[in-house]
Amino acid sequence: MAYYPEYEKALALTKEQKYLEALELYNAALNSDNSNPDILHDRGVCLFHLKRSEPALDDFNRAAELQPDYSYRYSSRAFILSSMKKYDEAAADYQKAIELDPEDAVAHNNLGMLYEQMGYAKQAKEHFAISDEMKKILDAEGIVSETEFAPPPIEVELSNAQREPSSPEVQLQEPENRSTTIKSVFTKRETFREFVRFITKGFKLDK
Questions:
Q1: pTM for this one?
Q2: Fewer CB atoms near the end CB (10 Å): N or C, the chain?
């Protein structure tokens, strides 16, 4: 990716929780490159911290449009959708992430937690089992996975009809090179790891 000093400064300000200042620099960086998915994603995170969920989602949507085959775009957007109580859309994003990256332990785990909160116990159990299996492989390979985070708690009372399992199916495909595939899942998401890290700490970044 081309070097944008405004973007680098914006990232530093985001770590310091200076979101308004960071937002100005993200905007400046996007003036230089308005189709950069990483800058769009990180501006979306900044907007989310400023409680501007709709424009944040717009940035996540644009990032996903620019990289439609990158599973991480869908996993990260799923959290935003969950926070906006768009649970079905969040689940669909996790499913898309898994479709693109079947051995993504984090996406399986988070989808399992979302299903558990939605009352879909069977589907939750299935994804937890897959996630646990992937973690065993990662441990054997000596790979440190990303920190997990739970989808925001569902705050509405679901009806019995809503709780009826919809039996979503995820078709897993055996990759040609299992080790390479697993390693790629956990080595190309530096930004996502940081995003997950401050989500797990109550939406606070380490200073």
A1: 0.68
A2: C
